[in-house]
Amino acid sequence: MESVNQAGFWQQRYEQDSIGWDMGEVSPPLKAYIDQLPTSTKNQSILVAGAGNAYEVGYLHEQGFTNVVLVDFAPAPIEVFAERYPDFPTEHLICADFFNLSPEQYQFDWVLEQTFFCAINPARRDEYAKKMSELLKPNGKLVGLLFDRAFEKSGPPFGGTKREYHQRFESLFDIELMELSYNSYPARQGNELFIKLRAK
Ligand SMILES: C[S@@+](CC[C@H](N)C(=O)[O-])C[C@H]1O[C@@H](n2cnc3c(N)ncnc32)[C@H](O)[C@@H]1O
User: Are 197 and 169 in contact (CB under 8 A)?
Assistant: First the structure.
């Protein structure tokens, strides 16, 4: 369990091509969310943490979002992403531990969550909520997907419930939306919640 906190655990998975849950494309609910954002948001600062192969970052970039920061502590997927998107600003490719990001250095309008929360040790979930709230500008939002199921095998991925997420986030965020996603990737249909949490 401790090993999921280490970059080496994930780097090895990328090197062995055994990441397992890579959809190979932007997640449909997130694509739909991005597609309805007004042009006025294109320069907003956006964080995608635990981005991995970062299909969402690629999609945001292709749609003209200019201020997207990719964070992952495993170098392998970042190198692949940089090759795929040579015009993506390299200063926005951050190989670092999310939990070490400094709020003095980084402040975002919104954060996109896609299978990062479920990849961290569940003992760190409150730490995740706190760090996210610190990295968001006042009124900033955390948007994305959280699993709404348990997993038989020990994780990652680590599952969870709406009830748990309410308890973990409600002291730091206004929960504007936390509902079953209606347009999930087929294999995840009925198993993930779309969330929109506003930093208090
Ligand atoms: C399950 S993968 C998800 C990747 C991507 N979001 C996707 O949906 O395909 C989880 C990712 O989080 C990264 N990760 C886990 N803990 C991290 C941490 N503390 N800081 C930065 N990245 C982390 C791993 O290296 C891995 O790339």
Answer: yes
Q: Name, in order, each residue with C-beta under 8 angstroms of 12's C-beta and a sequence gap of 6 or more.
A: none
What structural domains and CATH numbers belong to the chain? 2-199 (3.40.50.150)
Contact (CB, 8 A) for 125 and 147: no
Would you say the CB of residue 147 lies under 6 angstroms from ligand 1?
A: no
Q: Which residue's alpha carbon is at the smallest distance from atom 11 of ligand 1?
A: 50
Q: What is the pLDDT of residues 107-143, one digit of tens each?
A: 999 999 999 999 999 999 999 999 999 999 999 999 9
CA gyration radius for the chain? 16
Q: How far is the CA of 72 from the centre of ligand 1 (A)?
A: 6
Residue 76: which of 15, 5, 3 has the closest Cα? 15
Q: Is the CB of 56 under 6 A from ligand 1?
A: no
